[in-house]
DNA sequence: TAATTTAGCACCCAGATGGTGCTCTTCCAT
DNA sequence: ATGGAAGAGCACCATCTGGGTGCTAAATTA
């Protein structure tokens, strides 16, 4: 429906939060309380992000998640791909099409898809945070 | 899931088809046979498009649908809006948000949404068709 | 060893989406 | 005027995905 799933939405929120505390390990509990999101679900999402190595996790007291790389280098496209698969306007663009022959808009949709993907690749998690010039003095 | 619905997909295909026969009334049956799409569903979609006045319909023998305006002036965004509601990355962007307070990526998502919308507003149905320089000599 | 925190698995529910059947109405052509 | 063609409306169903939860295991630190 041309919408991000909640997984992506929550994931982006959490990543943005983590971006605002560079270096620190933040527990799911903390993030959830801060952002008011459903705990189990966010946990699920963070796990996926960590499996994809966008985050790293530490267990035990004082543990939690943190970014594996500066938010300025983390493209939104990457996040969405991890959380909901390839960025594409239609399934045929993501995998393959059984209508190829009769599909007259194949190339056109291809172009749209590419443009959308560019938008998502051109923006980073760092840019999600409200005005905050280049992270003045952080890690 | 950041995908067009099939309704949009089929709708765009049909519009592109109609764009390739400017002026002519094409019946649902004809379109369906040509593009190999599910009849009832496509009919449903075309009805919606005609209700939104992107198409005009004529009944009876020789009837069918045709574009109400040149395809060069019909933005993809318009079609998607008719078929699946406002173009927005999240529901909060389309309507309103109950997390506003704790949502730290509001402005950021707003920017993404605007960019995506621009992509869809910048492309027309005419551009969906494969290379075809400005419709040489048609209506 | 106890407490904290992530990881893995299995499951449920609701709503959106894709798809179909049937009947009614409109309208053209003869 | 009349019959057939074609769109419109309505009601319905099946399936899939997505949101959300519970419980237990494994890891880590104090």
Give a quick precis of the structure.
The structure is a homodimer of 139-residue chains. The first copy, chain A, has helices at 6-19, 28-35, 39-51, 76-84, 91-94, 106-122; strands spanning 55-58, 64-67.
Question: Unreliable runs of chain A, pLDDT <50, ≥5 residues?
Answer: 135-139
Largest interface: A-B, 45 and 46 residues
Strand percent estimate of chain A: 5-15%
End-to-end Cα distance of chain A, whole Å, is: 39 Å
Biggest beta sheet attributes of chain A: 2 strands, antiparallel
As for the number of domains of chain A, it is: 1
CATH topology of chain A: Arc Repressor Mutant, subunit A
C-alpha geometry of chain A: elongated
**CATH domain class of chain A:** Mainly Alpha
The overall pLDDT average of chain A reads: 88
Return the structural class of chain A.
mainly alpha
Itemize the secondary structure elements and their pairings.
Two copies of one chain form a homodimer.
Chain A: H1 6-19, H2 28-35, H3 39-51, E1 55-58, E2 64-67, H4 76-84, H5 91-94, H6 106-122
Antiparallel strand pairs in A: 1-2
Chain A binds a DNA duplex (30 and 30 nucleotides) through residues 1, 5-7, 27-29, 38-41, 43-44, 46-47, 50-51, 57-65.
């Amino acid at each position: 429906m041309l919408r991000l799933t909640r997984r992506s939405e929550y994931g982006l929120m959490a990543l943005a939060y983590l971006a605002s505390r560079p270096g620190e390990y933040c527990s799911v509990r903390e993030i959830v309380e801060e952002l008011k999101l459903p705990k189990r679900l966010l946990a699920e999402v963070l796990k996926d992000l960590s499996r994809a190595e966008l985050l790293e996790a530490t267990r035990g007291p004082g543990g939690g998640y943190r970014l594996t790389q500066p938010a300025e280098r983390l493209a939104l496209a990457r996040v969405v791909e991890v959380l909901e698969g390839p960025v594409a306007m239609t399934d045929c663009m993501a995998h393959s099409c059984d209508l190829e022959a009769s599909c007259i808009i194949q190339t056109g949709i291809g172009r749209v898809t590419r443009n959308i993907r560019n938008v998502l690749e051109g923006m980073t998690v760092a840019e999600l945070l409200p005005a905050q010039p280049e992270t003045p003095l952080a890690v």
